[in-house]
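thought: user wants a sequence for this fold. calling inverse folding tool.
action: design(structure=
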């Protein structure tokens, strides 16, 4: 549903320097699907925006007018079939780009993009939320897909990104790309992954790019037969591809790891030189198998998320001895949707944030893209492994938190997240002191109804929105 409202009710006080836009990517089918039991993440993409100027908060949400959305809008009915399977579509839309652009808002070079890793990004006007169109760097990008997760170096302003299935459906092709701080594509290199995997996220350090590959695998013959795009293989190995971040893909080295692991989101990566070793660290939320219910069902994995071993882990590779694989150290409790401050990306860092489901807080509630709602917010010191938690109670679920920096570098900033209350079917935007999450919300923005669960979000300061508006004008 497209909707807007102004000057929403605020309980508490939002700090004056929180001034800008919190963008949210949300799936929401424009028309009732004709595929039974299709996944929530097949829904049409919507861009939501909280525009925040102190205690004045406005909200708006609009559909991303993808080729797929416009085709169905013209037909006034659903035309596209199962998740990432064009062979289940209505013949009327043969050859129509089918991405829904519903996973991540990305801000770079003064432009706002919406991405969903199975197709091109779409550019959106950050002021009106109108869809501008597909984004391919003025025809320069050859990859057919763009990842839902990018890494932006806080020093250089460069954006590092990739596309998997870059050459087409179920191919092993991966395109590794770099855009400069102004948004110009300066590099695109292709390589082949060990198998066609759901390569959802990656990390970049000051010296390396790391591509973790987990055995959730696509098979073209299965897809053509109308079957699921993804099946998780617990008997297949995990891999990490690592190369110099400004190097050639021919320098890629593949490191083999344990069978059957799964991870969707990486918190960060960084380099360290210690005792004659050249270490590269990768912090990520690791599970013993795939967490998505529809993928577990297709894979014959009979386990609930609560039964799976999972942790926030640090994987460490020694560049002088990659043959020995990587070591693992648990640095936090199970969870997902990891975030750091933007200034800490690609660098050694201390603090991270993420959401988790703590069974001690209450029984699981149906919510979010993985089925069970997160009922706890975590702040973790990644060096010591010490963490603190904000438990929301059994009736609430938290969406992915985003970090908002403070002007004072001694201040840790704030976290903002939409919190849903199930018994009242309502949503609020919470602001929490990042350095004191146990203190709870310092301000709550009240919505008149419950919002759709978000996948990912992005914070854009007002000064950057203003610069983009001047540039566009």
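)
observation: tool returned 473 residues.
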């Amino acid at each position: 549903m497209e909707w807007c409202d102004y000057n929403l009710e605020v309980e508490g006080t939002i700090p004056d320097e929180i001034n800008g836009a919190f963008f949210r990517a949300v799936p929401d089918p424009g028309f009732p699907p004709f595929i039974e039991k299709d996944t929530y993440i097949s829904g049409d993409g919507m861009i939501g925006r909280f525009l925040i100027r102190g205690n004045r908060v406005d909200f708006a949400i609009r559909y991303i007018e993808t080729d797929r959305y416009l085709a169905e809008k013209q037909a006034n009915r659903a035309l596209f079939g199962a998740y990432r399977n064009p062979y289940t579509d209505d013949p009327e839309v043969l050859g129509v780009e089918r991405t829904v652009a519903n996973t991540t808002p990305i801000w770079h070079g003064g432009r706002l993009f919406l991405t969903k890793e199975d197709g091109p990004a779409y550019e959106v006007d950050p002021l009106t939320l109108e869809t501008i169109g597909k984004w391919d760097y003025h025809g320069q990008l050859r990859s057919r897909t763009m990842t839902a997760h990018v890494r932006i170096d806080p020093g250089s302003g460069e954006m590092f990104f990739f596309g998997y299935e870059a050459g087409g459906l179920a191919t092993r092709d991966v395109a590794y790309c770099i855009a400069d701080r102004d948004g110009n594509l300066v590099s695109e290199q292709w390589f082949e992954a060990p198998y066609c995997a759901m390569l959802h996220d990656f990390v970049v350090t000051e010296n390396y790019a790391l591509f973790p590959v987990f055995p959730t695998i696509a098979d073209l013959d299965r897809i053509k037969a109308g079957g699921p795009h993804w099946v998780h293989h617990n008997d297949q190995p995990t891999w990490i591809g690592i190369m110099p971040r400004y190097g050639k893909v021919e320098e890629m080295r593949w490191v083999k790891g344990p069978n059957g692991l799964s991870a969707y989101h990486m918190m960060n990566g960084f380099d360290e030189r210690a005792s004659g070793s050249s270490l590269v660290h990768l912090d990520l939320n690791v599970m013993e198998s795939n967490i998505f219910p529809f993928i577990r069902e297709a894979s014959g994995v009979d386990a609930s998320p609560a039964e799976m071993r999972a942790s926030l882990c640090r994987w460490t590779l020694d560049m002088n001895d990659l043959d020995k694989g990587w070591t693992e150290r648990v640095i936090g409790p199970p969870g997902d949707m990891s975030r750091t401050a933007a200034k800490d990306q690609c660098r050694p860092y201390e603090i991270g944030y993420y959401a988790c489901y703590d069974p001690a807080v209450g029984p699981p509630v149906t919510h979010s893209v993985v089925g069970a709602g997160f009922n706890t917010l975590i702040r973790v010191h990644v060096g010591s492994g010490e963490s603190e938690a904000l438990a929301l109670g059994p009736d609430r679920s938290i969406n992915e938190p985003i970090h908002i920096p403070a002007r004072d570098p001694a201040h840790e900033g704030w976290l903002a997240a939409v919190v849903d209350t199930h018994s009242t079917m309502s949503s609020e935007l919470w602001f929490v002191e990042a350095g004191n999450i146990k203190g709870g919300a310092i301000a709550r923005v009240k919505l008149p109804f419950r919002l759709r669960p978000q996948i990912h979000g992005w914070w854009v300061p007002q000064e950057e929105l203003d610069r983009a508006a001047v540039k566009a004008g």
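thought: summarizing for user.
answer: Here is the designed sequence. The chain has four helices and 33 strands.
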